[in-house]
Specification:
This protein has 8 helices and 5 strands, in the order H-H-H-E-E-H-E-H-H-E-E-H-H. The chain is mostly helical and 186 residues long.
Length: 186
């Protein structure tokens, strides 16, 4: 599994909370540096991974303002990020990008509208489709979120650049399996 063939997947992993990615990289580094193998390391990794998953799932209830006057939750800011990256998207496109139902996306978009961060409009060519765009306040949150990730990812990106291709492949393979494990458990 080469790094060049799956750059999009690696960039998605960089959207993990820094502590999650740092843990995964630390385990990989320890394994490759010290050669710790066997049952002990396997159980240690699984235990730490499950604690990390729990910690990440608890961030759902946390919010930040992202330079606005409203609390923005993790699910909301990542939809803002997605819309901002594309200027505007249909509800169905957002649903496909993040892997949740159109109903779930509609509920989040409704909250964004109430907070003044996004607005929906009916597609002129297809009355059944709703297009979502950011308001000026939404664009402010989008830019603040981009800055937040740029600042938080500098150390991680520096560390990743210091690794050779083999170590990056190991990390990538681990993250792929971890992603599949989460999909199977939730």
């Amino acid at each position: 599994m080469g790094l060049k063939r799956s750059g999009n997947q690696l960039s998605r992993w960089l959207t993990l909370p820094p502590e999650a990615l740092l843990f995964l990289l630390t385990v990989t580094y320890v394994y490759h540096t010290f050669g710790l193998k066997g049952e002990f390391l396997m159980h240690y990794i699984i235990k730490k991974y499950m604690l990390l998953v729990e910690k990440v799932s608890n961030t759902v209830r946390m919010s930040k303002c992202f330079d606005t006057d409203v609390d923005i939750y993790r699910s909301e800011i990542h939809i803002i990020q997605l819309i901002g990256d594309h200027c505007s998207l249909y509800v169905s496109e957002i649903s496909k990008h993040i892997g949740v139902t159109k109903g779930t996306v509609s509920q989040i978009v409704k909250r964004l509208e109430v907070k003044g961060l996004a607005k929906k409009s009916v597609d002129a060519e297809n009355q059944t489709r709703q297009q979502v765009q950011l308001t000026e306040k939404g664009r402010i949150a989008y830019r603040a979120h981009c800055r937040f990730h740029e600042e938080k990812h500098v150390d991680m990106e520096t560390f990743l650049r210091s690794l050779d291709a083999e170590k990056l492949d190991v990390i990538q393979e681990f993250l792929t399996h971890a992603h599949e494990m989460i999909e199977d458990h939730f």
